[in-house]
Structure to design on (77 residues):
């Protein structure tokens, strides 16, 4: 899965900022990087703790996450 550089940078910035819970649109921006990390064997929960926390409480984002995990080839560019 290829990640556009701007999305990767955004995902890292979001993961590093620990001052408030993420909003759904921020998780949407970072989710591809989160799933890509998970599929490549990295510890996505540690790399993106705020994304992980949001996925535990938001059914909509968690469903999107599950779909991306189940169909990773659809997210490739």
């Amino acid at each position: 899965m290829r990640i556009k550089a701007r999305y990767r940078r955004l995902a890292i910035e979001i993961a590093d900022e620990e001052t408030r819970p993420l909003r759904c649109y921020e998780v949407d921006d970072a989710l591809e990087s989160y799933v890509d990390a998970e599929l490549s064997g990295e510890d996505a929960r540690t790399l993106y703790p705020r994304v992980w926390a949001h996925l535990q409480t938001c059914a909509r984002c968690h469903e999107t996450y599950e779909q991306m995990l189940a169909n990773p080839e659809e997210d490739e560019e």
User: Anything to note?
Assistant: Helices lie at 5-16, 24-39, 44-47, 49-57, 59-70.
